[in-house]
Specification:
Elements: H1 7-13, E1 27-31, H2 36-51, E2 56-57, H3 72-79, E3 83-90, H4 98-109, E4 115-120, H5 129-139, H6 143-153, E5 161-162, H7 171-184, H8 195-198, E6 222-224, E7 234-236, H9 239-243, H10 249-262, H11 268-273, H12 277-284, E8 291-293, E9 307-309, E10 312-316, H13 322-338, H14 347-368, H15 373-386, H16 392-398, H17 401-408, E11 415-417, E12 434-436, E13 439-443, H18 456-467
Parallel strand pairs: 1-2, 1-3, 3-4, 4-5
Antiparallel strand pairs: 6-7, 8-10, 9-10, 11-13, 12-13
Helix pairs in contact: 2-7, 4-6, 5-6, 10-13, 15-18
Length: 468
């Protein structure tokens, strides 16, 4: 393995020309390790985002005029008021670097930097911050102390964009997720990027780690609209994306995906594949199974509600995001194109499905009120907020502390914007975000039984029923 270059030697060898950050406009700071594995991923992602018009600061593209002051540009960039937030690329290398610990500590202390967005780029696919922390702790040595310092700034349990598992080894998917993060933090692509940047051609194989493989699936030109209506409507490619662009990923999964699985358009073999992680990674670029049997041990990532599919009850995964929504819509469209018959459901089958769904819905309604208050909040309330029944005004109210106290006896806002949540509040909210109207929110997890707050469960049930 080649020796890792450090400091000025690394910057001079890896300098990127004509991609300087415009520090007079909002930008994101990139914190990463100079390790060869990390550098190849980071540089590739950086160049792709810059060509798209995003404003980013990275050390190799912002070399100082005076080489003796090579440390100063990073400090100046962090202190610049236009630095809105930072990307931290977490890995086996960056988790034990003293320089990274110091950089993250500075980023955290600067008032104008609202967030440090974490991106996991582990060399080992099943590695996590918790496991690596544990590994260094048991190994001994000074590396653990730097790792411990970093974990105090960026929690081991923090939600992170992950290259290997969540992005399905697809670096383009990683870029898409970073784009979402940039937009959510007020950094939009410039329509008139400089000619120098626009004219730079990056070869597809340049700076890509061997473990990354980009999946380019040829999409059919014409598709039909997936619908449970008895009379199908032919539509052109992209219409589903247009129609559902303002819908949450959860709505797409429930309104299109589930009815499709319940129809004869999806084979028994595909139902089995949807319960296999490898198939899901290939199709939806995530590390979950789209559906799971009721006796699955992994219930934390699934809705409590039962979905009757081909004579068997399943749970639907609730980890869909805006990125995976596009893959899901492509999957739905592909099923429609591959079928030689129009998308219709036999009347008798349709009536039977509706009847079964009604029975299961009534069973669920009868049961959920008996659940613990936390389960009701994290399942029934979560699903309701994600649905179209909860309006923008409702969402605004749920973020209001006084409204939350008066309506739910909650000392904390029921919802908090994912981009605005303080670090010391993260422990009071569920880690899985809610996506609503293009925004991400965290749902309060501080719910108490009758011994602590006598009527809180009654208030919660009352609000749910009023909005269902």
């Amino acid at each position: 393995m080649a020796k890792e270059l450090t400091g000025l030697e690394y910057l001079k060898k890896n300098e990127i020309k004509n991609m300087k950050c415009n520090m007079n406009k909002p930008f994101a700071f990139i914190s990463y390790s100079h390790d060869e594995h990390d550098s190849q991923i980071v540089m590739n992602v950086f160049k792709k985002l810059m060509i798209k018009g995003y404003n980013l600061w990275i050390d190799t593209a912002n070399m100082p005029v005076d080489e003796n002051e090579w440390r100063k540009p990073a400090i100046d960039a962090m202190r610049n008021k236009n630095c809105r937030f930072a990307f931290y690329f977490r890995s086996e290398s960056s988790m034990k670097k003293a320089t990274i610990a110091e950089e993250l500590e500075s980023l955290k202390m600067l008032d104008h930097i609202k967030k440090i967005a974490t991106i996991d780029i582990w060399k080992t696919e099943d590695m996590s911050a918790v496991e690596y922390f544990k590994k260094l702790l048991n190994l001994g040595g000074d590396d653990f102390y730097f790792c411990s310092s970093i974990c105090k700034i960026v929690s081991k349990e923090c939600k992170a964009i992950r290259l290997i598992s969540d992005a399905g080894n697809d670096i383009l998917s990683l870029v898409e997720e970073m784009e979402d993060e940039l937009k959510n933090n007020g950094i939009s692509p410039e329509s008139n990027v400089s000619g120098n940047v626009n004219n730079i051609q990056i070869k597809q194989e340049e700076n890509i780690v061997n473990t990354i493989s980009i999946d380019k699936t040829n999409k059919p030109e014409n598709v039909e609209k997936i619908t449970t209506e008895l009379k199908p409507e032919k539509v052109s490619k992209g219409s589903l994306r247009d129609k559902y662009k303002n819908k949450s990923a959860a709505s797409v999964a429930k309104e299109l995906f589930i009815p499709l699985l319940q129809s004869d358009r999806v084979s028994d073999d595909e139902i089995k594949k949807l319960q296999q992680k490898e198939y899901n990674k290939e199709e939806f670029h995530w590390s979950y199974c789209a559906i799971a049997p009721l006796d699955s041990n992994d219930k934390a990532h699934y809705y409590k509600e039962k979905y009757h599919i081909k004579g068997v009850d399943y749970m639907l995964c609730h980890e869909w995001t805006e990125r995976t929504k596009t893959y899901l819509l492509d999957w739905i469209e592909k099923r429609d194109v591959e079928s030689s018959e129009p998308h219709t459901i036999n009347n008798d089958v349709k009536i039977q499905q509706l009847s079964e769904e009604k029975v299961h819905k009534e069973e669920n309604i009868a049961k959920w009120e008996d659940n613990k208050i936390g389960e009701i909040a994290n399942t029934i309330l979560r699903e309701l907020i994600e649905s179209d029944k909860v309006t923008g005004t409702d969402v605004k109210n749920l973020q209001d502390k006084k409204y939350s106290l008066d309506t739910f006896q909650s000392s904390f806002p029921i919802l908090i914007n994912a981009n605005l949540i303080p670090d010391d509040m993260k422990g009071r909210y569920y880690s899985t975000p809610i996506e609503k109207d293009g925004n991400r929110f965290y749902l309060c997890s501080q719910w108490y039984g009758e011994k602590v707050k006598k009527h809180q469960k009654e208030f919660l049930i009352k609000w749910i029923k009023e909005h269902q």
